[in-house]
Structure formats: C-alpha cells, structure tokens
Amino acid sequence: MSDLLWQKSGVVIDESIQNFLAGDDVLLDREFIRFDIEASLAHASGLQRIGVLTENESLAIRQALLALDADIVEGRFVLDARYEDMHSAIEARLIEQLGETGKKIHTGRSRNDQVLVATRLWLKARLTTLQRLCVEVADVALSRAESEQWPLPGYTHMQRAMVSSTAMWWSAWAESFLDSAQRAGDTRALIDANPLGTAAGYGVNLPLDRAHVTEVLGFARMQISPIATQLSRGKYELAALEALGSATLDLRRLAWDLSLFTSAEFGFVGLPAQYTTGSSLMPNKRNPDVVELMRASHASVAAARTEIEQLLSLPTGYHRDLQSSKGAIFHGFGRGLAALNLLPALLRALEWKPEAMRAALEPSMYATDLAIELAAKGMPFRDAYVEVANPQRWEAGDPEVSLSARVSPGGHGALSLEALRARLTSLQAEGV
C-alpha cells in the first residue's frame, strides 16, 4: 500500500509516473520546508481556537513541529526520496510521533494553500533581503558620490559625448538602487497576504480563525476569496521576480560599465585581485570574471520570469502546472541575490584612475557647453547648434569649470545628493 497522502484504494501507483509527478519537489522543498513548518504551527494554533484540537493536542503538535525544525537546522533530518514532498514529510513525522493526534493536522487545509503560504513566506523573506541589498548598494554609491568629484567622460551610443564626473556616475547608481529598494518593498507589501485557510480554493465547512492565523504568521492581511487566492499563485511570484529583475537589470548595466572601464582601452577603473581570475593559457591575463558573472545573473531572473508567465495560461482553480513555479523562483532568486550580495563590497573596493579619465576628455566634449552658453546669451539654440557643429569651434576646456557650470538639478553643479540621502535615510529608518 502506498503512503502517498492522496492515495485511493484500488489505484495502482506507477513508479515512473510518480517520479514525473514529483519532479524535483523533494530537492526544492528543502528550501521551503521550514516555512511549511511555520505555517503548520500557526494552523495548529488556529485549529485549537475552533475546538478541532484540544490544548494538549495542540501543544504536542507544536513540540513535535519545533523538534522537526531543530532537526532540519542541525542536519539530523534531511528531506529525501522517502517522501513525496515537504507536506507529506511533515505529516508523516507527526503521525509517527503522535499517532491519531498527528492525523488531525491536515484538517481544514489542502496542499494547495500549504504550498501557497510556504512560498509566500519564502518570497517575503527574499524580498526583504533584496530591499536590504539595494539599500546597501545605494548607500555605498551615495557615499562615494559625496566624496569623489573627478571628471569622467560621458558616453552616448558608446561614443564620447560630454564631460561627466564620478559623482554623477555614483549618484546614478544610488538613485537607481533606491528605486529598486522601493520596488522591492512595494512588492512585499503587495504579496503580504495570508492564503492559508482557503484550502483547495473553495473554502471549507469549518469556522477557521483565519484572522488569528494571519496575525501569528505576520501577514499584513489575509486573502479573502479562495478562488482569487489560487489565481494569485504564479502572479505573486511573477511580481516578486519583476522586483528582483529591476535590481539585476541595474546590476547588468553597472557591470557593463565596469567591464568597459577596467579594460586596457579605457583604463578608468582598477579592481582588486580577488575580483579577477587568471587565464588557463595566457599568463598575462587577469579577467574580471566576477563582474561578468554579475552581468549574466539577470538571465536567470528573466528565465524564471518567462517560465512562470508561460505557466499562467490557465483557467480558475488549481492546476499541477503551477508546481513548476517553485523551481523558477528558487533559481531566479538564488542567482540574482547571490550576485547582488557581492556588489556592495565590490563597489567599495573599486579604484578610479583619474589621470586616464582626464586624458580621455577631448575638445569635442565641450561643444554642448558652448552651444548652451551662446543660447544663454540670446542666440537661438538651433543657430548656436549649427555654429558649434563646426569642428573648428571646438577647443580643449577645463573639465572642472564645465562641471561646475552644469547647474541644472542633478547635474554636477547641482547634484542634489541631499535628496537622495533623505530617501536613503527614510528606508533605513524603516529597518531595512
């Protein structure tokens, strides 16, 4: 006789079919099982409040769940192929230790809302980490913007365009990662809704104390409609990946800058040796592999987003297709957060090479300044543009003078870093 939770009498289980059905669930569920235990603790508390469990039964279940959690942390229990998934492993442990009492834990819930609440708690934790990392990156970038004022070539279309500065470069990343931090927080607020108690998507004939369970689990609210709750699976994961993608897209572009700036052709930036590797053949090479793999990390996030988006061509109700969403968020957040975790230290360690940056400035890069100056004196801008387009008008300028004259808000002469600092301080005050 099979010990599968859903096994019905007279149905023969084909091993190859079951292996296909289970997929990588057991391996993936090692990532989520402690959140499933947390949700089971809250569910047991709720069952006691409506009289399904006695106080002694609830206490016994609580002690058994906490012991299992400790065994997982200490490595005494490892989820493996003995179990179909984390849900069956937890229930099997309770039945093994508590007998009939253990059989009561599944009252009023389904594996549908079990997996929803476990992944929801997991996503909330990951979004908190994402927001913290974005705030840390912004803090590093803003601190360096406040202290570093060197001229730096600015580019459009990969061509030298105007005189820029390290302060403007840093402030760009500070503001970009502040935006990503805000988006991570906003997304966490969106998904901060308790799905537990909606069961298989149609409610149950028990007065479940969902408000109590919501509070115990630390959710801001509960999802009301059981059907809408099922519809949110994948949709909320997609929102979380989009928030992660906001940060990894910034990371990809920043990594591109560093890939260029550290090359011999630019020579603007030096990286500490620990962020580079050598060639297996060429003894002269030091390669910026860390930066390049950071640049690649967004691919995993984008792939995860695409996979989940393609899963969501479904009618209402639960469908087994959604099982694949667990692997997608695991891999997407795994790669994305790992890359972002390395970024603050890398940004603290990079060293500018001011002489090389100054040497890359050329007369044409002051042409826009000249056209604006003529327009400010009364010449129609289009006439000034035509006049300054003549290369004979170009001449070498003083980059510091050019930068200090750039007084439009956000330009080097009016960086408005205090506004970015205020945003950062506000986020930090929230405990991020």
UniProtKB/TrEMBL annotation:
Catalysed reactions, as listed in the record: 2-(N(omega)-L-arginino)succinate = fumarate + L-arginine
Subcellular location, record wording: Cytoplasm
Top-level class of the enzyme under EC nomenclature: lyase
Pathway, per record: Amino-acid biosynthesis; L-arginine biosynthesis; L-arginine from L-ornithine and carbamoyl phosphate: step 3/3
Keyword Iron-sulfur: no
Cytoplasm among keywords: yes
Main location: cytoplasm
Residue ranges of every copy of the Fumarate lyase N-terminal domain listed in the record: 35-299
InterPro entries: Argininosuccinate_lyase, Fumarase/histidase_N, Fumarate_lyase_CS, Fumarate_lyase_fam, Fumarate_lyase_N, L-Aspartase-like
Pfam families: Lyase_1
UniProt keyword terms in alphabetical order: Amino-acid biosynthesis, Arginine biosynthesis, Cytoplasm, Lyase
GO molecular function, one term: argininosuccinate lyase activity
EC number: 4.3.2.1
HAMAP family: Arg_succ_lyase
Family: Belongs to the lyase 1 family. Argininosuccinate lyase subfamily.
Protein name: Argininosuccinate lyase
Taxonomy of the source species: Bacteria, Pseudomonadati, Pseudomonadota, Gammaproteobacteria, Lysobacterales
